[in-house]
Amino acid sequence: MEEGKKRMAVLVGCNYHNTRNELHGCINDVLTMRETLVTRFGFQLSHVELLTDEPGSLVMPTGANIKKALDRMVDQAEPGDVLFFHYSGHGTKIPSVKPHHPFSQDEAIVPCDFNLITDLDFRQLVDRIPKGANFTILSDSCHSGGLIDKEKEQIGPSSVNFTSTTFPSQKPKMIPFEAIQQHLSSLTSINTSDIGTHLLVHFGGDASLKFRLPPTALDWSESLRSDAGILLSGCQANETSADMNPMMTGEKAYGAFSNAVQTVFKQQSGKLSNKEVVMLARKALQAQHFEQHPCLYCSDENVDATFLWQPKGPSA
Predict the structure, then answer these.
(1) Residue 312 needs a FRET pair 20 to 30 A away by CA distance; which of 5, 112, 204, 295 works?
(2) Which residue intervals define the domain Peptidase C14 caspase in the entry (predicted)?
(3) Residues with catalytic function
């Protein structure tokens, strides 16, 4: 099998301009990643789709548009292909709709229109990947650990404590569930605490699969199987990821995890495994006194697989 014969990526950056949830570094994160994919990982620019909420963008990163872009990429996948999704923006946790789990919570990302994309949506995408291809997700958002439903945890919650620093330019990339509920209620004018009702009324068929299908129609089994999904999360499921806006020093704004990954790439010119990328990003964040711990979720065989099947080092 020829590894990585076709390389495709969808990159999404949401800054939520002129809202109370505004971030500053997310678009910079994906622009930097686009350059890295082309110069280091052998992606063709024409195979990298960029969605940002920069004012004037022709295609905004709404929930529907993000899912359409991911669907297009997955539909083209063949054995040996490399698929990559980098998301930088807000994340959230929502009440689980799983039977017998009334107090548990599930992970979701927050597109610019608040049409949540959930862990179940990413599971459904991963399950469509043909055997022999892989699909790597790098999510720089709060509560991003576990963003692929039922994916096996390989590098998980850290018990290591170290001195963290909260910077004046630091903002968590999280919108609380209550704030999302309030925003959706203002759109639907419906008096209910059920977020699924709001999403279905406002977004209809574009709402997450988690809310469109009854719980009895979904496979809620906890069994883990080998699959093509690889998740590098910016933090643990119970942590926040930082958005940095160092305006005082004149530097570009950035997401702490996205920036840590870029630091790793600059310091390590050779091939890196998925595990090495996560562990080195943890070290980079710790050195900068960020209290967030990137995690890795994937099958056993993908732990030590080369990140994005890097074809060669930049100096090779």
Answers:
(1) 295
(2) 6-299
(3) 90, 142
Strand order in the sheet with 295-298: 48-52, 7-13, 82-88, 134-140, 229-233, 295-298, 153-155
Check residue 71 and give its pLDDT.
Answer: 98
Q: How far apart are CA 30 and CA 255, in angstroms?
A: 10
For the chain, domains (ranges, CATH) are 7-158+167-298 (3.40.50.12660)
